[in-house]
């Protein structure tokens, strides 16, 4: 193994890291009018300093987007199969596909950043976003516990900073602190769990662990190790008892950060969680069927899934802020996705990945709409959305596509995702053992329909509240971001009409 | 290492580790952490991991903790001293921690290999600095470099979040 070969196989990551450094350097060297810059309320007082900061933002976003596009190009040119250092860096069609998906999601997050006027240091923000993307790619493409942990930490540290980035907003600081405290505690648990697994198997590569574990029964020590390892991932995907950070982070963080947490971070966490349980812990599958529970990881994930679906949907009913509602619905969706992993074969994994990918695309789009509405009305409560149809039919249309897809209404991607998940779960066991989980999920979807429809009612039926209607400035023309939202809505519609485009690719890419 | 020394250093670590949390004065907390690190370094030495032990003293007990002390003294932190301990919360925390410790002990008690004596390691022919270096530049090269990126993120984050913004 020469360094040149390593660089060639890790070229995608290298390109993104270099882009991050370039963006960082531009952010540092562009002259800032340090005093008296009020960019936060961009409307009237766009003085010299404000426009120069906006220009920096535009340049940095452009370079970040360009770097991601180049990196996607290099990802397409990777060899079909390669393994480095006994699994630390693995290249398969699956990892390449998800590297590209992660970078595409980061690309849309960069587009959202461009119009975020409250960010005072766009260069640094984008650099951290790109480095977080590197963390995503490492997570996706590693089959070795040490490397997975470093990837988790790289992603986590970047996200803590991104959540707390807006220092003019108290909510952002609160969200950052909560996310940091929960995150560091849960990664301590994961590290402890990994060390127990390593202690029992003497190795950190997932395939070798599965060989070692095939000969042992589920001892108490192994059970502790598995449960502790899963805690960190349950935190990252915001599954129910570990979701307490989510509402504050979704509501308080700058919008691109929230969109990134809800999309890229979630997709990568599901990929790596799936690899750990399906490859590493494969011999300890257990059984989550209601009539024959067997100890293993699948009953643990089944319990997490059921709890997430119930807690997420019921608490979401009581929300009056759209971002908080999205956060609780994210908890519920993490629960649905876990069902695929509980079903636990190739098809279950690909159903889970299909669902989480479409969910991520939907949420980035929804956050794009929230960002545009928030710029205009300076808020994201339901009242800010009332009568959106009369102000901007295009945004209202896109939002209704996203909400209906989340609710699982037929022609959209969310419907097929749920259908695929539930049918896989029913087929997984000869005696329909996972029927209880599917029943819980169907019940949850029924509840969720209510609050998604409330959002649509606010947008289409409610009268615009007076303060907003009298505001002279209608939606400021931010063409790029509107195009991005429209593209995402089109993708959601397309994946609903022709799910095979992604689902068949996923299934073929499964090892 | 004789067992007597192991118990001495281990208890030193635990006592001063507890003192870090219990002390209300931040300077005393930081100094307790230094002593706790020294005990840990001695334990590493007893495992023949001389390099790790020395790094523990040089980097953690030396550089990192001196920086901690500087910052504590510069900022003149006094807020902690006056605060009362909330006994209800403290008891709750202790109970949860105790339950976890009991669980872990009972689980480890069930583990066969935990009761056997540990096989003595064979002495390596090369010294451990050489071994660590060889591993870092061969098998663990990729994680080594990624940790560099991770430290970069931490640096940028700390500078950004602690920087004072003009109003």
How does this structure look, described?
The complex is a heterodimer of chains A (511) and B (167). By secondary structure, chain A is an all-alpha fold. Helices cover 74% and strands 1% of the residues of chain A. Chain A has a domain at 285-511. Chain A is built from 22 helices and 2 strands. In chain A, helix 7 (170-201) crosses helix 8. The longest helix of chain A is centred in the middle third of the chain and has 32 residues, at 170-201. Chain A is globular and about 65 Å long. Chain B has 3 domains: 1-82, NADH-ubiquinone/plastoquinone oxidoreductase chain 6, subunit NuoJ (Four Helix Bundle (Hemerythrin (Met), subunit A), Up-down Bundle), CATH 1.20.120.1200; 84-115; 127-167. Chain B is built from 7 helices and no strands. Classes of the chains: A mainly alpha (511), B mainly alpha (167).
Summarize the structure.
Chain A has 511 residues and is an all-alpha fold. Chain A has helices at residues 3-9, 11-29, 48-76, 93-114, 122-140, 145-163, 170-201, 206-213, 220-236, 246-252, 255-280, 297-316, 322-343, 346-377, 382-385, 388-391, 393-407, 413-427, 435-460, 466-469, 479-497, 500-509; strands at 82-84, 89-91.
By DSSP (H or I, 4+ residues per run), the number of helices of chain A equals: 22
CATH topology of the largest domain in chain B: Four Helix Bundle (Hemerythrin (Met), subunit A)
Question: Mind telling me the CATH superfamily name of the largest domain in chain B?
Answer: NADH-ubiquinone/plastoquinone oxidoreductase chain 6, subunit NuoJ
| Pattern of helices and strands of chain A | HHHEEHHHHHHHHHHHHHHHHHHH
Low-confidence stretches of chain B: none
Low-confidence stretches of chain A: 34-49
Radius of gyration from the alpha-carbon trace of chain A, in angstroms: 22 Å
Count every beta strand of chain B, where a strand is a DSSP E run of 2 or more residues.
0
Percent of residues in β-strands of chain A: under 5%
What structural class do helix, strand and pairing data of chain B support?
Answer: mainly alpha
Work out the count of structural domains of chain B: 3
Largest interface: A-B, 44 and 27 residues
Mean pLDDT figure of chain A: 85
Spatial separation of the terminal alpha carbons of chain A: 24 Å
Number of DSSP-assigned strands of chain A: 2
Shape of chain A: globular
Q: What is the helix fraction of residues of chain B, given as a range?
A: over 70%
Determine the number of helices of chain B (DSSP H or I, runs of at least 4 residues): 7
Helix share bin of chain A = over 70%
Sheet bearing the most strands of chain A, described? 2 strands, antiparallel
């Amino acid at each position: 193994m020469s360094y040149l070969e390593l660089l060639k196989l890790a070229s995608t990551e290298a390109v993104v890291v270099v882009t991050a450094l370039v963006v960082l350097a531009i952010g540092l060297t562009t002259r800032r009018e340090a005093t008296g810059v009020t960019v936060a309320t961009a409307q009237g007082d766009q003085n010299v300093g404000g426009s120069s900061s906006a220009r920096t933002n535009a340049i940095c976003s452009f370079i970040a987007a360009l770097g991601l596009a180049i990196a996607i190009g290099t990802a397409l040119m990777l060899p079909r199969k390669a393994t480095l250092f006994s699994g630390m860096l693995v290249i398969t069609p699956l990892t390449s596909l998800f590297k590209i998906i992660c970078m595409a999601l980061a690309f849309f997050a960069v587009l959202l950043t461009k119009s975020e006027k409250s960010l005072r240091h766009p260069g640094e923000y984008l650099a951290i976003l790109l480095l977080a993307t590197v963390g995503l790619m490492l997570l996706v493409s590693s089959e070795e516990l040490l490397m997975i942990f470093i990837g988790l930490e790289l992603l986590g540290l970047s996200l803590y900073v991104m959540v707390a980035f807006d220092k003019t907003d108290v909510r952002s600081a609160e969200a950052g602190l909560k996310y940091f405290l929960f995150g560091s505690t849960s990664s301590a648990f994961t590290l402890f769990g990994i060390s127990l697994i390593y202690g029992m198997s003497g190795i950190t590569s997932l395939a070798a662990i599965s060989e070692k574990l095939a000969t042992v029964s589920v001892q108490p020590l192994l059970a502790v190790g598995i449960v502790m390892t899963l805690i960190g991932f349950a935190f990252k995907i915001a599954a129910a008892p570990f979701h307490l950070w989510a509402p504050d982070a979704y509501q308080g963080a700058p919008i691109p950060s929230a969109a990134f947490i809800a999309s890229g971070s979630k997709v990568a966490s599901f990929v790596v969680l799936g690899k750990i349980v399906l490859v590493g812990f494969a011999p300890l599958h257990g059984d989550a069927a209601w009539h024959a529970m067997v100890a293993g990881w699948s009953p643990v994930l089944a319990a997490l899934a059921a709890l997430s679906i119930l807690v997420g949907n019921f608490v979401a009913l009581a929300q009056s802020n759209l971002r908080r509602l999205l956060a609780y619905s994210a908890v519920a969706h993490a629960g649905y996705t876990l069902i695929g992993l509980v079903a636990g074969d190739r098809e279950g994994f690909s159903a889970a990945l299909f669902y989480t990918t479409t969910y991520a695309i939907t949420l980035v789009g929804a956050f794009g709409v929230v960002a545009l509405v928030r710029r205009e009305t300076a808020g994201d409560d339901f009242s800010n959305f009332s009568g959106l149809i009369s102000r901007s039919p295009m945004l209202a249309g896109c939002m209704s596509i996203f909400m209906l897809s989340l609710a699982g209404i037929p022609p959209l991607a969310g419907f097929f995702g749920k259908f695929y998940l539930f049918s896989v779960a029913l087929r997984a066991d000869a005696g329909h053992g996972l029927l209880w989980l599917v029943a819980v999920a169907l019940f949850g979807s029924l509840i969720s329909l209510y609050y998604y429809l409330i959002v649509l009612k606010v947008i289409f039926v409610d009268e615009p509240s007076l303060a907003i209607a009298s505001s002279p400035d209608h939606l400021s023309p931010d063409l790029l971001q509107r195009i991005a939202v429209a593209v995402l809505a089109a993708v959601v519609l397309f994946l609903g009409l022709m799910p095979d485009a992604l689902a068949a690719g996923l299934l073929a890419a499964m090892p | 290492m004789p067992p007597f020394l192991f118990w001495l250093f281990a208890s030193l670590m635990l006592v001063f580790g507890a003192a870090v949390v219990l002390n209300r004065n931040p300077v005393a907390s930081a100094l307790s952490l230094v002593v706790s690190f020294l005990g840990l370094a001695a334990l590493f030495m007893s495992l023949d991991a001389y390099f790790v032990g020395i790094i523990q003293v040089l980097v953690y007990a030396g550089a990192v903790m001196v920086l901690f002390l500087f910052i504590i003294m510069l900022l003149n932190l006094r807020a902690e001293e006056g605060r009362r301990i909330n006994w209800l919360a403290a008891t709750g925390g202790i109970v949860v921690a105790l339950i976890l410790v009991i669980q872990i002990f009972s689980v480890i008690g069930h583990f066969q290999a935990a009761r056997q004596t540990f096989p003595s390691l064979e002495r390596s022919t090369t010294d451990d600095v050489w071994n660590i270096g060889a591993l870092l530049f061969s098998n663990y090269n990729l994680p080594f470099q990624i940790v560099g990126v991770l430290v970069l993120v931490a640096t940028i984050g700390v500078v950004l979040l602690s920087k004072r913004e003009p109003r």
